[in-house]
Write a structure and sequence with these properties.
The protein has 246 residues and is mainly β. It has two helices and 15 strands. It has a single domain (3-245), classed as Jelly Rolls (Sandwich), CATH 2.60.120. The chain has helices spanning 3-15, 131-134, and strands spanning 31-39, 51-53, 57-61, 64-68, 76-79, 87-96, 102-112, 139-149, 160-164, 168-171, 184-192, 195-200, 203-209, 223-228, 233-245. The strands form two sheets. Strands 1, 3, 4, 6, 11, 12, 13 and 15 form an eight-stranded antiparallel β-sheet that branches. A seven-stranded antiparallel β-sheet has the order 2-5-14-7-8-9-10, with no helix packed on it. The radius of gyration is 18 Å and the shape is globular.
Length: 246
């Protein structure tokens, strides 16, 4: 790097400092309302009412929840038990523990196709198989893959937003978490009725408006769940959800 460029970057940093994303709302277009859910994810007791589907396990160390499948047995989904409104801001922090391969997804607005709870006892038992969540006749949801480095598709990196049922790909533009990153990242997921926005730290990776027509009505309230493919080992903490001020 030449001396002129070094000096330019130094001067620019004085006038336009890089801001740390932690504790900040990366988009001033959306304002947090009431804090409606908080979970440190720091201990077994904190997530005792969450529900694991598939052979995933959780372990706790130094204020973090580790999630993985022993011996990479199979995919898994860990559901928060609360139903969230159709508009919200959610945040959580996570860090990759195994950069060789993995894939992280968040499901949200998950609700029975007739308004049932997704844990309705009449529904078939789910075991982490993807089609049970994306092509189910029992319930609908949106999902975003924000870390994509699966052994079946290594180094994809580009984030996908899909609307289910139907596995409808509605946006793929920006990369999510870098596939080799071992940094702590903060995820911000915003749902403002039909508009869905996601940030990795301060970088926007998803921004899409559901027209409520092409793939059916806009999905509103429902549950949030974290899915990992079998090769994945991430650790999570500080999951919070706020209402959205209009």
């Amino acid at each position: 790097m030449n001396l002129y460029l070094v000096n330019y970057l130094l001067i620019a940093s004085l006038f336009f400092p890089i801001k740390n994303s932690y504790g900040q709302n990366p988009s001033p277009d959306f304002k947090k309302g009431e804090l409606i859910y908080r979970n440190s994810m720091a201990s077994k007791e904190e997530v005792a009412d969450w529900r694991m589907e598939g052979p995933g396990v959780t372990e706790f160390k130094d204020g973090w929840m580790h999630m993985f499948s022993p011996n990479e047995k199979y995919h898994h989904v860990f559901w928060c038990p609360k139903d969230f409104p159709g508009s919200f801001i959610a945040e959580w922090e996570l860090q990759n523990q195994k950069i060789e391969a993995g894939l992280c997804i968040v499901f949200f607005s998950a609700k029975g196709s007739k308004g049932e709870d997704i844990f309705d006892p009449s529904f078939p038992v789910r075991d982490g198989t993807f089609s049970q969540y994306t092509k189910s006749n029992q319930f609908n949801n949106y999902h975003i893959s924000y870390y994509a480095n699966g052994r079946d598709n290594p180094g994809r990196e580009i984030s996908h937003l899909r609307k289910n049922k139907g596995f409808n790909l509605v946006q793929e533009i920006e990369p999510g978490i870098p596939v080799k990153s071992i940094e702590i990242h903060k995820i911000t997921l915003i749902k403002d009725g039909p508009r869905i926005v996601m940030f990795v730290d301060n970088r926007k990776i998803i921004d899409w408006v559901d027209d409520g027509k092409k793939y059916g009505p806009v999905l509103q309230e429902g549950k949030i769940g974290f899915r990992q493919m079998q090769w994945t080992h991430f650790k999570y903490r500080a999951f919070k959800v706020w209402s959205l001020i209009k």
